[in-house]
Structure prediction request, 196 residues.
Amino acid sequence: ETSHSEFPAPGPETIIWRYSSLSKLLSLLATNSLYLSSAETLKREDPFEGAGTLADQRFADELANNDDVFARHFGAETIAIRHHIARQVGDPAGHILSTLVVNCWHTNPHESMALWQIYAGRNEGVAVKSRVGKLARSLNNEFDFIIGSILYADYETTLSTPGNSLRPIFMKRTCFEHERELRVLYWGLAEYYKTA
Prediction:
């Protein structure tokens, strides 16, 4: 199953692009496999990748410091673990980021010169054009991949969806809307999952 109700992908006929170096394309062809990089590497481009929003962090501070607010949202019986829950609210994916791998695509019927320059380099890269359905069919059915569109949000005012640690992996700041990103995600390292 590649779809997720909270992170829907566009229809199977939607055109997608992947911009990369020639060496990455040759590797894809030689190995007949799609390379998925650690979700932690996304922070190189944007330190907010995979992190809670600023609104999440403010809410987490309020939960950690105000018994009444915490009890209203989580119940008085959980006050003993208030700081643990507040930490999860402030950084919902932080504890699992190292266990996720991703592959990113651009949804657009046409090429993007901006993305050519950012991800492929001037006169050095290639663009792979495909469709969402073909990408989904190419993934190994033995594993649970999620293909979903990125939600672009104002990090000052938007709370991540409570109770879903993967939401921040499918959220980016509005200044990245030009990317029109589609993300393939695999939570393949669950055995390394560490509790906070």
In short: The two ends are 29 Å apart (CA to CA). The first strand starts at residue 15 and ends at 21. The CA atoms of residues 28 and 34 lie 6 Å apart. The mean pLDDT is 83.
